[in-house]
Design a protein that fits this description.
Strand order of the largest sheet: 3-10-13-12-11-14
Distance between the termini: 52 Å
Protein name: Efflux RND transporter periplasmic adaptor subunit
Order of helices and strands: HEEEEEEHHEEEEEEEEEEEEEE
Largest sheet: 6 strands, antiparallel, barrel
Domain Multidrug resistance protein MdtA-like beta-barrel: 330-390
Structural class: alpha+beta
Number of helices: 3
Shape: rod-shaped
Subcellular location: Cell membrane
Family: Belongs to the membrane fusion protein (MFP) (TC 8.A.1) family.
Radius of gyration: 64 Å
Main location: membrane
């Protein structure tokens, strides 16, 4: 209630009494009251602006005090984790840390290459007459790709076959001649045996008649006849022996002729085989199972054995090439797990490090690593760039949701839900303490490790059995009362 204003003072002029009046000196000037201003009235007018400033300052101070009171009683508890009187503990979500496998890994950009990528070249020269495939076709080993005009080569094959037939006929004639000579030789040998027996008989007759003639039992003429017969038998035997020798020479010539014709046939067969093999080269086939790439030849093109006809790539087994920075090279080892990752972060293939280059690339200062991957389904392609993840180490770690981690002044914290009576908040409590079983959010510094999806490893500072706060971290302060959401 405003105080009552002071009523104005009435002007009072007392009557002049003659007895008490004193004479006014003659030289005294008489001034009217309305011709001058009283000192009190002048002071009031000069202090009016000062009072207005004073009232303004006092009003601002009052408003500031009210604002400070509201901040301390309502706003500060909300922003710092407390609850204003009458509002109760702050509702938050709680979660338990999980123990899961954690991988210490690094992702690199890698390039896929085929372990078998070929440029198909013909083994013969000629003009392209047919192309059986198109780019992108999958072909099996020994499947025809294209054909060259083989008219001349086919003629050579036919000529070689004719030479074989001629050689076979000559061999047959030579064999027949040889067999005939052998039969004649057998006849001559039989004749020789007969003449040898006849010679022996006539020798015995001559010897017998010589004894008889010596005894006078026969005439000299008879002895001479026996001697003549014996000499004829010897001449006949010598003649047959000469015929046998001549026949043996004939047989030798026949055998040589057979050998010559057989050699001619072998030469003809070799020429035919070579011509036939050369004829096969006029049909270009796939040496491996793979996918046809770019075809550089067209029907009608004249190609040589040095012409690159097409590309053929085998994607069944791919080789990934990874350039590892020199600072990570010390961690490399054979058989380290390697994963290929797609654009969504999913693992496509798994393999192992199979090769580590002994040299550092002088331009990139990196070490090249290779790993092999099966690509039976054809999911990957040669020369494709892909993310390759090298897993340096696998271990079990404590993981928390990334939403449970707060950062302040370069440090990482989590809020752990603990009963007030078991927490360290009693030493920091100001004002009335909560009930001993009241949950409070205790801020704990932690060390972080690898990120696994939407969670992150806590390498130090957190017990897996503790419950952590996962929501409302921006409104929490250390030791603020909390209540778990149902």
């Amino acid at each position: 209630m405003n105080p009552p204003r002071n009523p104005p003072h009435p002007t009072y002029d007392p009557p002049l009494e003659a007895s008490s009046a004193e004479p006014i000196p003659a030289d005294t000037a008489i001034t009217r009251s309305d011709d001058f201003e009283s000192p009190q009235s002048s002071d009031q007018d000069s202090s009016a602006p000062g009072r207005r400033w004073l009232y303004l300052i006092l009003g601002l101070l009052g408003l500031g005090g009210i604002a400070w009171l509201l901040y301390g009683r309502v706003v500060a508890p909300l922003t710092q984790g407390g609850a204003p009187p009458g509002f109760g503990p702050m509702r938050v979500s709680l979660a338990q840390p999980t123990l899961r496998p954690v991988q210490d890994s690094t992702d690199y950009v890698a390039n896929l290459g085929s372990r078998k990528s070929l440029q198909i070249q013909p083994q013969a020269s000629g003009r392209v007459s047919q192309i059986y495939v198109r780019p992108g076709d999958r072909v099996e080993a020994n499947e025809p790709l294209l054909r060259l005009d083989a008219t001349e080569q086919e003629a050579q094959v036919a000529g070689s076959q004719a030479a074989i037939n001629t050689a076979n006929a000559e061999i047959a004639a030579a064999n027949a001649e040889l067999e005939s000579a052998r039969r004649d030789l057998e006849v001559l040998r039989a004749t020789q045996a007969s003449r040898e027996a006849d010679l022996q008989f006539k020798r015995q007759e001559y010897d017998r008649f010589r004894q008889l003639q010596a005894q006078g039992a026969t005439s000299l003429q008879s002895l001479q006849e026996k001697e003549s017969a014996w000499n004829q038998a010897r001449a006949s035997l010598a003649e047959i022996k000469a015929q046998i020798s001549a026949q043996a020479a004939t047989i030798a010539r026949a055998q040589a002729n057979v050998m010559r014709t057989r050699q001619q046939r072998e030469t003809a067969i070799a020429a035919a085989n070579q011509a036939q093999a050369q004829l096969k080269y006029y049909t270009v086939v796939a040496p491996i199972t793979g996918v046809v790439g770019e075809i550089n030849a067209k029907v009608g093109d004249l190609v040589a054995s040095s012409t690159a006809l097409l590309d053929l790539t085998q994607n069944q087994m791919l080789e990934v090439n990874i350039d590892i920075p020199q600072e990570d090279a010390a961690r490399l080892a054979l058989n380290l797990p390697v994963q290929l990752i797609d654009n969504q972060g999913k693992v496509l293939k798994s393999g192992q490090v199979s090769f580590i280059s002994p040299n550092v690339n002088p331009q990139t200062q990196s070490v090249q690593v290779k790993a092999n991957f099966s690509n039976v389904g054809g999911q990957l392609r040669t020369n494709q760039f892909i993310t390759a993840r090298i897993i340096w180490e696998s271990r079990r770690g404590v993981l928390v949701p990334t939403t449970a981690i707060s950062r302040l002044a370069g440090k990482n914290f989590v809020f752990v839900a603990q009963p007030y009576g078991e927490s360290s908040c009693q030493a920091e409590q100001q004002g009335p303490p909560p009930a001993p079983d009241q949950l409070v959010a205790v801020q704990k510094p932690v060390d972080l490790g690898a990120i696994v999806g939407n969670a992150q490893e806590v390498s130090a500072g957190l017990n897996p059995s503790e419950r952590i706060v996962t929501s409302g971290l921006l409104q929490l302060q250390n030791c603020a009362p909390i209540q778990a959401n149902p």
